[in-house]
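testing teh design pipeline on a random one, pls ignore if ur not involved
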C-alpha cells in the first residue's frame, strides 16, 4: 500500500494507492521494478486531495477569492500553500484543456479568464461526477497536476 499524509488528521496517514511489481522471474519479460498505482481521488506528490481541490476550485469559479474560499472551507493548509496549488493548476491548464478538447467540445462560456474557462469545460465534461478532478484522472489516466 502507498500511504501519505492525511489532511484531516494531524500526524495521520491515509491510503493513497498501491505499489505494483513488474515481475522479471522465470518466463516473464518484466523489468523487475515497481511502480505506483494511485487512487483517482489522490493528487500524486500533494497532500491536497482531488475532492478538496475541486471544492476550492468550484468556489473560485463561483466568484470567491482564493483567500475567502480557503477561509470558508477551513482548509488545513497555510494560505501560501493554497495559493501555490492554484498557481500549479493554472500552469497545467494547457495540457488539461488539450485532453478535454479531444473528447468533449468546449462549452460556450461567459468567462474571460482562460483558467475559469478550463474549469467550466471540466465541470461540463464530468457533470455526472461529484468530483470532476477525480473523474478526469480516472478517465484520462493522467494526474491533474502532472
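output:
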Amino acid at each position: 500500500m502507498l500511504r501519505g499524509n492525511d489532511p484531516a488528521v494531524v500526524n495521520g496517514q491515509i491510503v493513497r494507492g498501491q505499489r505494483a511489481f513488474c515481475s522479471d522471474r522465470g518466463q516473464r519479460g518484466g523489468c523487475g521494478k515497481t511502480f505506483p498505482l494511485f487512487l483517482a481521488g489522490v493528487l500524486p506528490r500533494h497532500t491536497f486531495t482531488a475532492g478538496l481541490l475541486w471544492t476550492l476550485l468550484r468556489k473560485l469559479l463561483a466568484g470567491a477569492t482564493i483567500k475567502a474560499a480557503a477561509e470558508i472551507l477551513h482548509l488545513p493548509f497555510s494560505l501560501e500553500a493554497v495559493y501555490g496549488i492554484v498557481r500549479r493548476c493554472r500552469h497545467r491548464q494547457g495540457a488539461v484543456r488539450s485532453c478535454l478538447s479531444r473528447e468533449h467540445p468546449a462549452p460556450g462560456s461567459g468567462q474571460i479568464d482562460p483558467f475559469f474557462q478550463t474549469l467550466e469545460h471540466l465541470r461540463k465534461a464530468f457533470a455526472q461526477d461529484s468530483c470532476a478532478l477525480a473523474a478526469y484522472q480516472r478517465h484520462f489516466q493522467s494526474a491533474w497536476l502532472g
